[in-house]
Amino acid sequence: MPPVKLHEQPTYEFHYELQVQVGHLNYGGHLGHDSVVRIAHEARVHLFRLLGVAENNLGDDRTGIIMGDLVVTYAGEGFLFDKLQVDSHVGETGRSNFRMFHRFGRGETLIALVETGLIAFDYAARAIVPIPEVFRSALSRCLESRP
Fold this sequence. Notes:
It is built from two helices and six strands; from the N terminus they run βαβββββα. It is an alpha+beta fold.
């Protein structure tokens, strides 16, 4: 089976920075795969906070998200105390789903690309639902205000 190959997005409107900590390392002494997924999650939480929403409330007090899929491709290594920048983009928005794209970098060096498929979900009804208009509007307003 050929490997999955993600490609960088033309633009990333959101940015999250952090320093690689000892708990992020694997036995090889570099950024572990589990930490890459956790850091992508952190970047999403920060992006949602910027939009005024949360993973369990996309702005309508009933719709959250569930993850439909996750793909990570690696291009480099991250090491203890490296300053990482996670650049994020929300795209491919459908009726009930959207994709988030993350680029992990250390300076100009690409470390990893992460893509997640997120689905609007009503946890009380246990059902997939349309993305709330309040979320779409918050995302549009935020994107319009970016240089």
